[in-house]
Amino acid sequence: MEQISWTDDLRTGNALIDGDHRKLVGLVNALCAAMAQAPANDGMSAAMNDLIVYSKEHFGREETEMKRIQYVASLAHASEHAKLIKQAVELKSMLDAGGMINVVAVSGFLCEWLRHHILTADKKLAIALKNPTPRG
Ligand SMILES: [Fe+2]
Question: 74-120: per-residue pLDDT in tens?
Fold first, then answer.
């Protein structure tokens, strides 16, 4: 089962965002560990729920910061957040309904999504937060 490591390349340099991301990495790994126990999936739904709850909080903090600096890419960035939440909620619904999910594909998807989102969207946001463009 895929896991994600907290490596230096994932640091954005923004303490608030990096702290949240470390916790997100832990939650994704906890979910992947629970998925490794499939099909005994009691722990999977709870771990998915923890990830959804914390992701919403974290995405909310990033989106508040985007609003504060009137970030130009805020709509595209927030839409990546919304899509991830939607997919995670759908997966949790499937689990809660007793459905089967492809745990290898889901763990790969979540690890890749998080790495890609941090390395692209979040790093750009951290740069903008450091150097907000003055607006008249
Ligand atoms: Fe983000």
Answer: 999 999 999 999 999 999 999 899 888 899 999 999 999 999 999 99
Q: What is the DSSP letter of 13?
A: S
Crossing angle of the two packed helices 15-36 and 42-68, in degrees rounded to 10:
160
Longest dimension (CA), the chain: 57
Q: Could you tell me which of 121, 130, 113 has the C-alpha nearest to residue 24?
A: 113
Half-sphere exposure of 103 (CA within 13 A, CB side): 21
- Kindly give the distance from the C-alpha atom of residue 77 to the centroid of ligand 1, in angstroms, as a whole number: 6
Cβ-count burial 3-15 (b if 16+ within 10 Å, e if not): ebeeeeebbbebe
Centre of ligand 1 from the C-alpha of residue 37, in Å: 29
Instruction: Please tell me whether the peptide bond between 134 and the residue prior to it is cis, using omega within 30 degrees of 0.
Output: no
Spacing, Cα 58 to ligand 1 middle (Å): 8
* Distance from Cα 126 to the centre of ligand 1, integer Å: 10
